[in-house]
């Protein structure tokens, strides 16, 4: 696989069936580095993450992950059933399925990764609790721990800070800083300008098109102004 210093999207067109969402999107995301994706509701941010995961196959254009092998994906909390009758430890362990396959017995290494990821997000005391008994912010931390347990090169996050209090948001930001320092490439959809500003790079989408890309301060300034 080709190894570059970037994830490169070239003229990507993608959507759902006959519904086109992303239209001719070209962008270059630093690798390693943190890229935030901002834009109004429905502008195609989650669809872009779907393309990067490979779940959504572009109808046109190309995606070059720059050699990123393992991809971790952390969904919006709403997208995940809170009713699953599993514990926090079981949910985080699901992050190991990507390398082991579902229903396989986890190795000692897998179990150690799961414990480390729970500890990083202060989930160890909740390890035996059912997901359904957790608060929204705690569940959000479980989803991130599950993403980290995949030991990804490329970590894709869909609004991981939504609805979190300041302490939990700071904690997640700290964990993402650590991952970035370890060389993980992070792509992060957010509506939070403070989170977007901390990134290395920012993409502004509108109507499925790239309106601007570059340093967050410049791009966010652009997003404050009416398009045109
Ligand atoms: N599974 C789907 N089938 C058909 N259309 C979809 C599907 N998922 C999203 N869409 C449509 O694609 C468009 C872009 O949605 P997407 O979720 O990518 O936007 P977004 O920028 O992430 O929005 P938000 O900020 O609200 O999360 C929307 O018009 C949405 O209705």
Automatic annotation (TrEMBL):
NCBIfam families: AztA. InterPro entries: AAA+_ATPase, ABC_transporter-like_ATP-bd, ABC_transporter-like_CS, AztA-like, Metal_Ion_Import_ABC, P-loop_NTPase. This is ABC transporter domain-containing protein. SMART domains: AAA. Gene3D superfamilies: P-loop containing nucleotide triphosphate hydrolases (3.40.50.300). It comes from [Actinomadura] parvosata subsp. kistnae. The keyword GTP-binding does not apply. Belongs to the ABC transporter superfamily. Residues 7-227 form the ABC transporter domain. GO terms for molecular function: ATP binding; ATP hydrolysis activity. PANTHER family: IRON TRANSPORT SYSTEM ATP-BINDING PROTEIN HI_0361-RELATED, METAL TRANSPORT SYSTEM ATP-BINDING PROTEIN TM_0124-RELATED. Keywords: ATP-binding, Nucleotide-binding, Transport.
């Amino acid at each position: 696989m080709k190894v570059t210093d970037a994830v490169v999207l070239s003229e990507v067109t993608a959507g759902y069936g006959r519904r086109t969402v992303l239209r001719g999107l070209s962008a270059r995301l630093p690798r390693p580095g943190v890229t935030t994706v901002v834009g109004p509701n429905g502008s195609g941010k989650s669809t872009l993450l779907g393309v990067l995961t490979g779940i959504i196959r572009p109808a046109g254009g190309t995606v070059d992950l720059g050699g990123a092998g393992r991809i971790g994906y952390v969904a919006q909390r709403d997208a995940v059933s809170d009713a699953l009758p599993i514990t926090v430890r079981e949910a985080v362990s699901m992050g190991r399925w990507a390398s082991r396959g579902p229903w396989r017995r986890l190795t000692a290494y897998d179990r150690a990764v799961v414990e480390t990821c729970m500890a990083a997000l202060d989930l160890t005391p909740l390890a035996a609790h059912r997901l359904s008994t957790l608060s929204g912010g705690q569940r959000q931390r479980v989803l991130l721990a599950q993403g980290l347990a995949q030991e990804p090169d490329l970590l894709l996050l869909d609004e991981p800070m939504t609805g979190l209090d300041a302490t939990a948001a700071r904690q997640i930001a700290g964990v993402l800083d650590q991952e970035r320092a370890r060389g993980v490439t992070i792509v992060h959809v957010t509506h939070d300008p403070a989170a977007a500003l901390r990134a290395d790079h920012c993409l502004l989408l509108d109507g499925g098109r790239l309106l601007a890309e570059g340093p967050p301060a410049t791009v966010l300034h652009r997003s404050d102004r009416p398009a045109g």
